[in-house]
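Usage

Read records sequentially. Each one opens with the input sequence:
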Amino acid sequence: MASKFDYNKAGDVYARTFYSGSTISLVSLMPLLSTHQGVQLFMCIYGLVVFLESPKPLRQERTLYIAISWVIFVLSTLPAALDALFAFRMLYESKTGQEAFAIVGVLESEWPRILSLSSVSVTTFVGDGLLLYRAYVIWKDKWWLIILPTLAYLGSVAMGIRVLLPQSVPTIRVTASVWTFLTVSMNIMVTSLISFRLIQMRRSLARLMPTRNLSEYNYSGVLSILTDSALPLTVFGLGYAISLVVDAGLTNESTKRWQIVNIVFATLYYSFTVR
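and closes with the structure output:
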């Protein structure tokens, strides 16, 4: 016979896992990242310095890029700070796990939480949009190849907006899962298209210039960056999407396992969406 469900234990696990996730998100903003991903703040400042030192004609072409890089940095930093505030209030204002659940219900409708979720959504939209644009640039001659990724992107934008609207817990879990699946699918398709094009270009150059050393064209480095960026996003994204639709069960142990798995995949997935 299944034991009686204990909201205090479930709320306690939720509070601790959410706080751990917020801490990881803050740490991910520090200079502990791989060399080719870099540190967002450093890259933004370095890009701005190079931009200011460039001649005026070149600045016009780079203005949008600099603006978008800072927008992504600000929007990706806000959720980490706001979620830390969310976790602090949840832990500080509750004495039991059941009270933590009740406080979460109140905090979810307040502006800091709404701003945090909106920032995550916009960051994802902008980052995926830039990735899709890169694919379009190198596949202009065969633009129809990006129709399917574009449809997946538009679907992800629609589902991302839907996540922000009020809805029941079971519904929002399904909506967030579909949104994640669409985002991951688009990233897989676009990364594959870009990688294939780069390999194709390298082979073409090798045939045209058989005696030329092509090592100066660092295609392998670019492919490595693309693969290393897409692989964690795919793995953690799929794990997060699946965990959202998996039944958490009605026992304390099953709920505890689901909460831990869900928050781990969610934290890692959203950390890689801004890289």
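Summary fields computed downstream for this record:
- The longest helix spans residues 169-208.
- DSSP finds nine helices and no strands in the chain.
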